[in-house]
Amino acid sequence: MIGNNLAKRIVPCLDVDMGRVVKGINFIDIKDVGDPVECAALYDKQGADEIVFLDITATHEGRGTMADVVARTAKKVFVPLTVGGGIRTIDDFKDILRAGADKVSVNSAAVRDKELVARAADKFGNQCVVVAIDARRRADGGWGVVINGGRIDTGLDAIEWAKEVERLGCGEILLTSMDADGTKNGFDIALTDAICKSVNIPVIASGGCGKLEHFSQVFEETGADAALAASLFHYRELTIGEVKNHLKEKHIPVRI
Amino acid sequence: MIAVIDCNVGNLFSVKNALDFIGEKSEVTSDAAVIEKADALILPGVGAFPEAMREINKLGLVETIKNQAKKKPLLGICLGMQMLFDYGYEFEKCAGLGLISGEIKTIPAEGLKIPHMGWNSLKFKNPSPLLGGIAEGSYFYFVHSYMAFTEDKNISTYVDYGTEVTAMVWDGKYVFGSQCHPEKSGEIGLALLKNFCRLAD
After folding, report:
1. What architecture is the B2-198 domain classified under in CATH?
2. What CA–CA distance (Å, rounded) separates B118 from B185?
3. How far is A161 from chain B (nearest CA, A)?
């Protein structure tokens, strides 16, 4: 039988503030460790299947800077580029896509105005609309959707929200476990599995990975299509190549 | 000079950026004179089949592209590849450029996620000159919900996704198509574009 032959994707994420990569990176083989374009190019060289820029700038001028970063990156990096953070309107989508991004990720803006997801999908196609869901375990055993870095509980149920955004036309879910994030104890398998089983669009697992085995675990135990990591790659604790070699040894399809 | 044909759909600049990166002179254009003067043509496209065909008709480029494709290499990418065929069935039946015989219909991948999005590995059928130096099994980036149904002789590569999904086509002469995005497929994608540009020399 011919099945799904897609490679599982490894996605590094770069936090960008005012056009500069934040967090103390100690890449040794690039000149400017704060330049997102150089960092993205290095990740591309290491075999990243896609690169995510998360814009953490709070100001308006910072946003314009982000479009410039994307435009410069798109001249040097030839793998799909996703941009998230601070996207609120259809015009924001347009600016970032026109600059050269392939996908745009929305988080709290989708919660505040779910029609934004529908309008963006209609206008630009489902494939470029990513909804980022930050989920946290509730006392009753389910998961709630939180925004603003976990400071605000939206009252939404994560599984219901995932189904809803799929219905609205979202093409992919970037799922972050707020319980696992930063722990380095591994991806949140229960959450990722529950979301993957609830939707029929790709899910990127995020939050919690600390070692090689966490990557194979999330692909073996859930239906996740991709795994995202930020600090693990930033601080060179692992390279993308090491992760992919490990997955290959485990017979998980990866692009090498 | 490579003419990147602009029919007001999708992001042409990723193709332009890739050509700049490999040092190939190119121009994004919807001007028939520029298309006629070019050494080779690239027809990119993201979006819906009927809308793209309407645009290309409105620009009056259908005959230009058809005539030019008889004498110089043409590469259709993604929706641009789909437009090379006789008919598309996205939303409605719509005539394409008719440069390669076949039709565009939804991917019959039961139980699998649509769009077919991500990196998939090529299998060879009748490899075209674009595949010089590219090994079978190489991964290319795909994003699409519709695929080409055509005779085996036109298919240079395919990928497994619930069915044999047509990945690249060639008419045996000047007309090439790539369902996947070479401009988003890293080094191997750039190698394919280089092979195409070499045909123009």
Report:
1. 3-Layer(aba) Sandwich (3.40)
2. 10
3. 19
